Amino acid sequence: MPNTLKLEIVTPEGIICSEQAEMVTLPGVEGELGIYPLHTPLMTEIVPGEIIVKRGGKDYYLAVGPGFAEITGDHVSVLTDMAIRADEIDEARIEQARRAAENRLRERFSESDAAALNAAIARSIENLRGRRRTRRTGPQT
Question: For the chain, which residues make up each domain, given as ranges?
Fold first, then answer.
């Protein structure tokens, strides 16, 4: 019986993460989804949020954009447009992007523009939340 599973996170830029984990928590469309070794095979959509990786008894965090996850008994594969480790997030840049998006939202835009800006704001807030958590708990890898 395996006690770990392999986590791979792939973005258009390449492989962001490829490591063994004791547990992975994904931000699913209906809430958080906890994955342990020997999980039932599953294909699911993920939403912008935070992936939590338990390794060596510690939790590590990654901010992630929308995408898909394929889960097998010993493997979690995530395809997404954006993923970044919490300790690599530039908090000042995220805060600046959030403010810029909010300012643009105050201007007059079409519904599709407003939806895109709201999504950008949500991603920025999730990234900022992950960075602040890292600052409280120490560097994460």
Answer: 5-86, 90-137
Alpha-carbon distance values, 129 to 43, 50, 95, 118, 125 (Å):
27, 9, 11, 16, 6
Asked if the model's pLDDT at residue 138 lies above 90, the reply is no
Question: Which fold, 5-86?
Answer: ATP Synthase; domain 1 (2.60.15)
* Cβ-contact 131, 138 below 8 angstroms: no
pLDDT of residue 135: 58
Q: Distance (Å, rounded) from C-alpha 47 to C-alpha 15? A: 19
Q: pLDDT, tens digit, for every residue of 71-124?
A: 998 999 999 988 888 777 666 666 776 677 677 666 656 666 667 777 777 777
Query: Per residue, what are the HEC states of the chain?
Result: CCCCEEEEEEECCEEEEEEEECEEEEEECCEEEEECCCCCCEEEEECCEEEEEEECCEEEEEEECCEEEEEECCEEEEEECCEEEHHHCCHHHHHHHHHHHHHHHHCCCCHHHHHHHHHHHHHHHHHHHHHHHHHHHCCCC
